Amino acid sequence: MSSSMSSCEPKMEKKKAIVGAGISGLLACKHTMEKGFNPVVFEARNGIGGVWSSTIDSTKLQTPKNYYQFSDLSWPLSVKETFPDQSQVMDYIKSYALRFGIFTQIEFNSKVVSIKNLSTNEDEVCSWELWSGTGKAFSPKGKWNVVVQDVLHPLEAPKVYQVDFVILCIGKFSDLPKIPHFEQRKGPEVFRGKVIHSMDYAAMNKIEAVEFIKDKRVTVVGFQKSALDIAAQVSKTNGVRHPCTLLFRRVQWSGSENLVRLTFRNLNRFSELMIHKPQEGLVLWLLAFLLSPLRWIFTKLIECYLRWIYPLKKYNMIPDHTFLKQIYSCMFTVLPDCFYERVEDGSLILKRSRKFCFCTTGLIIDDEVDPLETDIVIFATGYKSDEKISNIFALNYFKKCITGSSTPFYRYPVKDMDHHIVLILQTSFPLE
């Protein structure tokens, strides 16, 4: 929260809305309550946890738990695992909400349809006077209408709440799935089987998920964490009799939990000396220059290690890029247990493809004559995160602030709006 919120401002009279009750939403609520406000949290689902509330059965942390915890609440001693599973993570999140009295602030089954600034034109929206250029935390005009739909009663008219400050904690990995575009008559509409997104599969409970894939020929499209986890689970359920096919275009470096432990153990002050920093002095520049070869050596050793423990060359699974480049992109994933063992026994088939399209019985891959016959296609192809965020704004000015940025790292701050709207988004994959 801004340090400019002086005690002379009537905090309790200023209304704050927080959209989303995931980890970021809970933290935002807790900190605003500590500052003396009485925020309301709108959550579209019937529980807290965000993406952790709907995952497949085998989902675990990819980050050691000591690097994925609240600063004011440690993991319980009963959690011995370095990488807790979904149920343990959810119990931990719920214990945080209970400890700090956050549940009473949450309106469940309340989906925020849109938020609209009450300014009449774009010039007024951009003015410093409106966005606290006066040095105060709140201006008298900077207000928002938050339109909320009751999920349990969708036919009822939405309610409109007027607030002084909005904190968006809606996340990047939910709600709006990204599905590849296909030419006419070559998409899912011609396929006789079932086509779903990984989001839909994760929403099923354990029994429903098993019944959905049991004794079916399943093809999973993608190679990020959700694709690997789903493919491993399907292959474990159906075995060699009905092998699962993992269809992907690009290979990524993936490793074991032990490799993640080693990597995080090296995230220390010494490793920081290998990186050039803005406005660094001569000594730091010289140290980074002399020590930078150690980064290359370390990552090359990891690549050799992964080629040694996994049959990457045998299955054409060696990525075209370096491990160092992938780490810089925060795209490293942990392989599910026994992943390559299932590839070896034939219950999981790896298939690399430049392009594919649908036919009545399955998928035609790279213009092959014989189609890949399948009953179910699961797209684990990510989410339209930018579109999801921009859609919540009613005014085009704010939509343009979100979409089309050429600088993704700084994509989410909204110009000149520090004191009336905040976007809190997780932008790196290792913490998933």
TrEMBL record:
Keywords noted in UniProt: FAD, Flavoprotein, Monooxygenase, NADP, Oxidoreductase
Record flagged with keyword NADP: yes
Cofactors named for this entry: FAD
MF annotations from Gene Ontology: flavin adenine dinucleotide binding; N,N-dimethylaniline monooxygenase activity; NADP binding
Enzyme class of the recorded protein, top EC level: oxidoreductase
Record has Flavoprotein as a keyword: yes
Superkingdom classification of source: Eukaryota
Enzyme Commission number(s) from the entry: 1.-.-.-
Family, per entry: Belongs to the FMO family.
Matches recorded under PANTHER family: DIMETHYLANILINE MONOOXYGENASE (PTHR23023)
Protein's recorded name: Flavin-containing monooxygenase
Originating organism: Olea europaea subsp. europaea
